[in-house]
Amino acid sequence: MVVRRVKIRAVVWLLGMLVPALMARPVRAGPEDCLECHSKPQLTRDGKPPLTLESFLASVHGRADCTGCHIGEGESGYEVFPHESGDEGPQDCRFCHALGKTVGFPEIIKEYDESVHEQRMGEKFRCSSCHDPHTMAMVDRNLPREKRIDLGNKACLMCHADSAFRVAAADGDEIPPSSTHDWLPSLDKHARMRCVVCHTAIEGDKDHLILPKERAVRACDACHDTDAPIIRKYLGLDQKESWVTNPILFEMAYLPGTTRNRLADTVILALFGLTIAGALGHGLIRMKAGSGRAPAPYQVVTTDLYPLGLRLWHWANAVLFIVLAFTGLRMHFGGRWGMGMDFESAFNLHNLVGVALLLLAVSYFVMNFATRNAGQYFGPPQDGVHGVVAQAKYYLVGIFKSEPHPYHSTKDQKFNPLQKVTYFGVMYVLFPILIASGIVLLFPKSLPETVLDRPGVWWFATAHYLSACGLILFLLGHLYLATTGDKPSYLVSAMLTGRHRHHEPEDAKVIARKQDEAE
Q1: ∠ CA(91), CA(92), CA(94), 5° rounding?
Q2: I want to staple 387 with a disulfide (CB 3.0 to 4.6 A). Which of 4, 296, 417, 481 is the partner?
């Protein structure tokens, strides 16, 4: 009986030893086997979603066995089941990638060793901190640009809570006001960029050399310039033979200072030059033609023509527009106009002055209709087309012969026929286009992404630019024509004092009386 009990205890002991040994059998640690358990939510860590066989097989490591990285030692070895969860992590990525299977990996290691991640976190930070080895996949170049950028930034957003502005922008939500990136203008547009654009060194293709935030790129000219260093880094050198700057980027986005049409700019700059040259030439001929001619007898007629409110608007409008023209051209031409004002200052000043001009324009149009001054712009000009031709003929021929002005300003007709046609086009066509397009550009989020295969903002920016250039041409001509009064100073002084002066030829009786008085 005792012997039988000993045999039973021996069998039980033997089974107790064999069952664990049988359970801890070697397994083929392929993804199908491991994911039977590791796809369960309770085995995930760091709040990551459960890993699925489908997502793993779609990754760059989808053909590898799990034990290629998860090796372990002793009883915690991952080649037996069940295995303990040891503290040691998976094999370092350098073990495989440094063998030459990844092009440029030695340079990547060097960049990483100099990056803020290595300098501040050391052993706590590994490749897998950014690149999830279970889901990492090569970005499909056929995906939409926004999707590719989202995938590229995913690694950064896993840790950087301050980058919540990027998540909000991708979802179309409002940008958190407490974001550390709120110094950027048009934050929603900048938020749709790769993080590494500004947070890596500009020199060379160094996407792994992550800089401390104090050294991140904050200079707008790094992008907003035809030959900007960041544009060169990611898109290469500008193709000078193309009619558009940075043609690859031109097709995808509108970037002030970086994307523009060289042909349109050449034509516009030529018109600026011709206008200035024409004014200088016309003025020199006037001086030469009038230098040897004795003035005919005349009397000065003075009329109170321009009220104080109109004069204040005129000069304020002129100053604001000149500032807008300078800052706008500075942004449009990028680094070429960079001396004396950086892009960010030009952008902020342009928007501030633009709002001031908008308020001034509203007050002007209200005042114009309230005082019926708008009637000066509307309706046919004096003598119709004949009057326009007569005034143009005077500027082209008569002014050199010291002929009298065919039309003088009066309270009922402040503009000559040519002025009336020109000023109507300027104040009631170009000016409203400039103001309306400027308002729209202040709120780019309200615009559609694309219109007729071009970025939606591009159409409004083009209208804004062309209307501004038309107004600059008018300003250049206007500055010269302001010297074409009966004396060069008359028209300018009229907008300072409100009193318009012109010459009326004296009749024979007045001339004879003055001669008698002189004798």
Answers
A1: 130
A2: 417
Please say if the pLDDT value at position 61 is more than 90.
no
> Tokens 């000078």 map to which residue?
240
Tokens 């109507």, residue located: 424
Task: Name the DSSP letter for residue 401.
Answer: G
pLDDT tens digit sequence for 135-189: 887 777 777 777 777 777 777 877 775 555 554 544 555 555 556 777 777 777 7
pLDDT band at 293 (very low <50, low <70, confident <90, very high): low
Say how many C-beta atoms besides its own lie within 10 A of residue 287's C-beta. Answer: 10
CA-to-CA distance for 216 and 211, rounded, in angstroms?
6
Q: Tell me the mean pLDDT in the region 71-95.
A: 65
Cα dihedral 225→229→232→235 (10° resolution): -80
Task: Give start and end residues of each alpha helix (H) in 98-195.
Answer: 105-114, 116-121, 145-157, 164-170, 187-190
Residue 165: per-residue pLDDT: 53
DSSP structure class, residue 427: I
All structural domains of the chain: 279-518 (1.20.950.20)
d(CA 279, CA 481): 8
